[in-house]
Amino acid sequence: MCYEMGMYKHKIHTALYNNKNIVETLLGDISEMTPQEIIKDFKKHVESHLFVAETITDAGTFIFYDIEIPIIRTNIKQCNIILYIICHRKMLDDGFSIDGYIGNRADIMSQLVEETLLDKEVLNDFGIGALNLVSNQIYNSSRFYGRIMTFEIPNFR
Amino acid sequence: MKEWYLMQPPTMFSGDESEEFADYKTDYFSELLQSDIAIDIILYNPDMTIHKVARAIINNKTPDTKLNSWSRHLLLPVGTSKSGMYVKYDNRFWLINGIVDNNTVYEKATMVFCNWYLSWINQQGKIITRRCSITSASQYNSGETGVTRYIVRSDQLSITFPCDDETLMIKDGQRFIIDKRCELYEKAFDNNIKKDTNKNLLVYQVTRMSNILYNYEDCGIIDLIASQDEQRETDGYYVINNNSYWLCDGDDIVINKNQILSVKIDYTTSFIYCGTAAQKFTAKFYNLNNEEIQVEHTWTVDCDFMSDINVSEDGDSIYISTSNPKLINKKINLILQGAGETTTLLLTIKPFL
What we know:
Number of helices of chain A: 5
Shape of chain B: flat
Largest sheet of chain B: 6 strands, antiparallel, barrel
Strand content of chain B: 35-45%
Strand order of the largest sheet of chain B: 1-2-3-7-5-4
Helix content of chain A: 25-40%
Order of helices and strands of chain B: HEEEEEEEEEEEEHEHEEEEEEEEEEEEEE
Oligomer: heterodimer
Number of helices of chain B: 3
């Protein structure tokens, strides 16, 4: 019943990692980094749970995500992928930009995440049909600001 | 005619028992081996890479003299053992030193107690170890000899080895450390000690080798005489590839700084994250001075899904990756071999999260 949770997380993590813009937004300039260093640092900035530790003091950008199954019917269940895309307040409006994207750092990140997960090679890889973005809300805390994105996908029970 | 179960055994032998003896002689011995007078032993080849367990009867276990206490007689099924094999029982090692022969019922081997574990460097620079039996070849020697100017040590030992490709090539002049104090010294070493040449040691040099006296065609033992030698600066304790040895230089064999001290695989993580960039593993060889040195080496990737992983080499490094999620949690054995040394690393394919 809950097998997808682990597999979806692996697919999300891999899809985000394979987007160079997302990696550079999270880690900064990676031109001097080895592939192993990039993997190690990426794992510090992208976590497969929604617990945002108050002890994070780095002025950085992070992605936290998790899977929930709010509705389980006789044959079909509903899977939701919830992502927190958050930046430290100091970095939010620091002039960060990528060609073709508009907004502050959190806005750009959420556009990148949407593109990545709705890419034709990724969106049909989860359940029945295509992954669907259903909401994009605000995340607001004392140190971090960003977006809460929710994707849904039905799957067989 | 009486029923067979009412018949009595014959009271006079007919003289026709030889057939029965021929048919059942080995069965009788096998039955004896299953009884409590027999024990389990392990037989080893000279370099101890092959062994087999066998049941045997060991005689001469309650001798009356010190000299006899060093030897045992081994009774085994015919064809089990050969001269030059090691025998282990009761946590002691013995060397079969006589010709093994049989009387059609069982075979008998004489063996002598192995009281030392010798290490030396062969002509190719490889470290060889063998168990051996050492006895004095100079029983009534005072331990000193000399002329007018100086006194040097004097002692002679007779060393018996199994006859194999390595022991046959021991040259005159080969030097060994034979000193029970080595065990005491090692107890005082901590794990960081890789070399110590400051201890007083008893060192011996081969002065006479006999490899035909105990040549039994396809097997045998080697007997050599080693005379006590003066200790040299480089004689001592070495840790090489995580194994400790007490080693000497020979006249043409030198423990030089290019001797491999350790080999390891350098890596960031032993996890291969599915769907990401390849993980890099680098071969590192270190000499006695803990300096990195270049050594020709080979990598072996051991798994049963080679077609689903990507492997490439570049210089001293090997790169491994996979994008097949079905391999998650599977293991790969990465083996590095070079200059006779081997090390392994167990890798796990993990989901990237």
